[in-house]
């Protein structure tokens, strides 16, 4: 099963960029060259790659559902699960 998580593009530098996934979670060096994206757009990220540009409303809805599912889970476990979902390390 593949999991992709939405985030907002903060910066673009070459083929890569900085993406904000909410709650202070920001990842540098997300590959953006697979999609036509601008700063401020929301993208789905899987394994460090932006695979699709998505609507802001849908992105926020997904982020809210993620928060609801993780209610009651420690911050450390939440971070670990998140980074595994987007293909990164703590």
UniProtKB/TrEMBL annotation:
Gene3D superfamilies: 2.30.30.140. GO terms for molecular function: carbon dioxide binding; iron ion binding. SUPFAM superfamilies: HupF/HypC-like. One of its GO terms (biological process) is protein maturation. NCBIfam families: hypC_hupF. Belongs to the HupF/HypC family. PANTHER family: HYDROGENASE MATURATION FACTOR HYBG (PTHR35177). This is Hydrogenase assembly protein HypC. It comes from Candidatus Acidianus copahuensis.
């Amino acid at each position: 099963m593949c999991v992709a998580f939405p985030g907002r593009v903060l910066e673009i530098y070459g083929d890569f960029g900085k993406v904000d996934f909410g709650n202070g979670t920001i990842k540098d060096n997300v590959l953006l060259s697979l999609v036509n994206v601008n700063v401020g757009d929301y993208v789905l990220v899987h394994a460090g790659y932006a695979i699709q540009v998505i609507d802001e409303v849908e992105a926020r809805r997904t982020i809210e559902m993620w928060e609801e599912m993780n209610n009651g889970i420690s911050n450390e476990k939440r971070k670990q699960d998140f980074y595994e979902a987007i293909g990164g390390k703590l």
